[in-house]
Amino acid sequence: MSKWIRFHLDIGQCMLIIDHSNNVAGLYLHIPFCRQACTYCDFHFSTRTDGMDDLLVAMQREMAQRAHEVRGGSIGTIYFGGGTPSLVPLENLSTLMGDIRTRLSVAPDAEVTLEANPDDITAERLTEWRSIGITRLSLGTQSFRDERLRFMGRAHDSAQALRSIALIAKAGLASWTIDLLYGLPGMTIAEWDEQLTIALDHGMPHLSAYCLTLEARTALAHQVKKGLVHMPGDDDQSAQFDRLMDRMEVAGLDHYEISNFGLPGHHSRHNSSYWEGVPYLGIGPSAHSYNGRVRRWNVSNNARYIHAVEKGEAYWESEELTAAQRTNERLLTGLRTLAGVALDQLEMDAVARNSSAVQRHVSNGHLLLVEGRLVLSKAGRHFADRIASDLFVIDDDR
Q1: Alpha carbon distance 260, 247 (integer Å)
Q2: DSSP string of 107-161?
Q3: What is the pLDDT of residues 78-120, one digit of tens each?
Q4: How far apart are CA 132 and CA 167, in angstroms?
Q5: What is the pLDDT of residues 334-372, one digit of tens each?
Q6: Contact 317, 347 (CB under 8 A)
Q7: N or C: which end of the chain has fewer CB within 10 A?
């Protein structure tokens, strides 16, 4: 599972009921290569691309070894994440897509997303990506200000960001989205308004907006520790989140997940499957998989991954989740969504076990009980993780 930065703020006044009767598995492929390191990123990546061919071959081998895990079902979503998948030459991407369709049953209307950076976007590449089956692009814009992009360590500039969006809007893709960051050091409401206005004026059908968080072992964490950068306070970040929600509501974009906003028909089907607990298969170094009971994650080291796949050695770890862990995960991910959590989908009765916490959050207007579902109010979206943790259950046998 991949996004440029993790989001720890915290969704939904109106109701969206999701039908699980036609759920199909998702496929995630982690492409761990980037032109340069972003100051805030702690995902697995490498700025050395000389081993790309060997790694892509290993990913094909892993897919061949694990194709049986999705037999009997079809792949409804495919997501090329990273890293920067737009760095992969078209020939290699085409080979991967062909291998996926050969080894796995892919739904005819599958959503196929490619994460891309503005500096990789050309009209020719967009046409080529469409020709091999890419239906959706996720553009790592992050900001429309050059000084912010330099601070983040991004490889593109604001002019490239605007040009790439204009090209994507004309490319005929089924959908596309851009990423923006807020909660940046020194960011004002005026600056954040400017960023949102630019994005909306360019006709984006979907926005992923993430609050900058401080991750250990990143360049940003080092800068903060040295006193070179000062992170904003909670009040500033909260005010920017409120402005984000208000602006997207006026623009008609559904706030369907805590950090995701989309016009009707443009919600990310792949990411929605994560939040709804649908099984998915993860291929590549550091990729995670989930089959409904067991969570598995691959080694976060390219050389070790390639060697182990070639030699038939273990390159992953796994954990079978208990009933309590599965319940807690549904609470944590479900409360982030517009639909909330259906109580009859929880294996353990979190409401009865945490009745006082439920009553407290309902009384302060942060949590709603609507037609058998737990849903966050607009005010409660600021505290999704905290509310979810207050409702966590403990295994009876532990």
Answers
A1: 13
A2: EEEEEEEEEE-GGG--HHHHHHHHHTT--EEEEEEE-S-HHHHHHHT-SS-HHHH
A3: 999 988 999 999 999 999 999 999 999 999 999 999 999 999 9
A4: 18
A5: 999 999 999 999 999 999 999 999 999 999 999 999 999
A6: no
A7: C
Please name the amino acid found at residue 66: R
Residue 79 makes CB contacts below 8 A (sequence gap 6+) with 2, 26, 27, 28, 29, 112, 113, 270, 271
- H helix count then E strand count, the chain: 14, 15
Q: Are residues 328 and 267 located together in one domain of the fold?
A: no
- Please state the pTM of the whole predicted model: 0.90
Would residue 280 count as lying in a domain?
A: no
Read off the CATH number of the domain in which 114 is found: 3.80.30.20
- Per residue in 228-283, pLDDT (tens digit) is 888 888 899 999 999 999 999 999 999 999 999 999 999 999 999 999 989 999 99
* CA–CA distances in Å: residue 8 to residues 22, 380, 387: 31, 13, 12
**By C-alpha distance, which of 291, 218, 299 is closest to 32?**
299
Q: Are residues 254 and 377 in the same domain?
A: no
In one-letter notation, the amino acid at residue 303 is A
Q: DSSP state, 301?
A: -
Q: Report d(CA 257, CA 334) in Å as an integer.
A: 9
Residues 204 and 63 in one domain: yes
Q: How many domains does the chain have?
A: 2
Other residues' Cβ atoms within 10 Å of the Cβ of residue 113: 25
* 3-class DSSP assignment, residue 292: coil
Residue 140 sits in which domain range?
25-275
Label residue 125 exposed, middle or buried (CB < 10 Å: 0-12, 13-18, 19+): middle
Joined together, the tokens standing for residue 208 give 């992923």
User: What is the rounded distance in angstroms from the CA atom of residue 60 to the CA atom of residue 308?
Assistant: 13
**Is residue 85 one of the residues assigned to a domain?**
yes
> What phi and psi values does residue 182 have, to the nearest 5 degrees?
-130, 180
